[in-house]
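To: structure desk
From: M.T.
Subject: fold request, one chain
Message: Could you run this one when you get a chance? Sequence is below, nothing fancy, just the single chain.
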Amino acid sequence: MTASHSRPLRARPARRARVPVVAAVSLGGGVGAAARYAASLGWPTAPGAFPWTTLWVNVTGCAVIGVLMVTVTELRPVHPLVRPFLGTGVLGGFTTFSTYAVDVRALLDGRHVGTGLTYLVITPLAALAAVWATASATRRALGRSWA
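Reply: Done. Structure tokens follow.
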């Protein structure tokens, strides 16, 4: 007996059942990407300068995801499209870790090594801290302990 025959098969949802989820993610992604783009237009970063706008967009998006995930997974049942729309769509479109990677590369290529390395380290640490802090604060505000 081969390994593929020893595990039970998972049923894949019908394509029709996935359409609402894909639509929710797509619509949310458009909203989030538009908000991120607006932030980059409102607070542009000069070449070689520290990319504060991208950092704050990523940290803010991660903070909101901390609140969202606690709220939709621990508070009460929500519509099944809320997480795909808000979490994957809006916040996935809003946060921009691809721009973070491009910014780091541009800083390093432009011989702004100190700025590039600082940004490289600070962004993921600040993003993770934002998720942890807001999830913890949301749990405390809801009177729940770490589950």
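Reply (cont.): The CA atoms of residues 102 and 108 lie 10 Å apart. Let me know if you need anything else for the meeting.
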